[in-house]
Every structure is written in C-alpha cells, then in structure tokens.
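User: Some background: our group keeps a shared notebook of sequences we're curious about, and every so often someone picks one and asks for a predicted structure to add to the entry. Today it's my turn. The entry only has the sequence so far, pasted here. Could you supply the structure so I can complete it?
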Amino acid sequence: MAILVATPLADAGVNLCTTLTGNVDSTNIMDRGHTLGGPCMLRVTSTIGATPTVKLDIQGSMDDVTFFNVPYSLVATPETWVVAQITITTAVTGYYILKGGVPWRYLKTVMSVNTNVTLSCDAFPTSFKG
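Assistant: Of course. Here's the predicted structure to add to the notebook entry:
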C-alpha cells in the first residue's frame, strides 16, 4: 500500500484505488499533511456484475495506524453529516463531501461484503480556509 501526498485542488486528485475488487482496503492512502484541514471531495465510481453489492467505509487516521469513519455528506444534502457505511448496488459515480476540520491526516477506503462490484476512488483535498 502506497501513501500518496495530497496537492490541494489538483485536477487529477489523489487516486486511492482503480478497478479494485474484493473485501480490501484501498490500494493507496492519501496523506493530506498538516496544512490541508478543509473539506475534501471523494469520487467513487462503481462497475458491477450479477447480483452486485458492496459496503464502503471512508476512513481517516492521524497516525496511519488507527482508522475511524470520517463524517461525510452527499452533494444533495451538504450539511447532513453521517459516518455510516455506504452500500453500493448499481453502476454509479458518487460524490461525497468529507467534513473539514475533522482531525485526520491519512485517508483510505475499505470495501466489505463485496459481491461483483469493482470500485475506483479518487480524493480531492482543499486548503483550510478559516
């Protein structure tokens, strides 16, 4: 697993995984460093096979050892924060806003209960403003 240093507002973002299958952690971990405390956008793209389902956790850590679910919201409800697992059952591209000011430095995704779903995940960090 590689740790990739984040660059704020980079067009390509930070790739956490590409066409990943199974019940695994993302291939890469994003390190947003000590200066990027603002919100972050996570893009999750799924492709599916027969009877698809996967549970996805978005996890952060201060030390790259102990991870916890990070508060996120949907674009349609940007002020409704949750930490629940995301269930994906269709081919879709979803965007999740990760709450700024939450004390995490490292970011990864974790897939579980995966049946015939392939995920690609990219994170787009921003600078802290305020």
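Suggested note for the entry: The radius of gyration is 14 Å. Strands lie at 2-5, 14-20, 28-31, 40-61, 68-69, 72-74, 77-82, 86-88, 93-98, 106-125.
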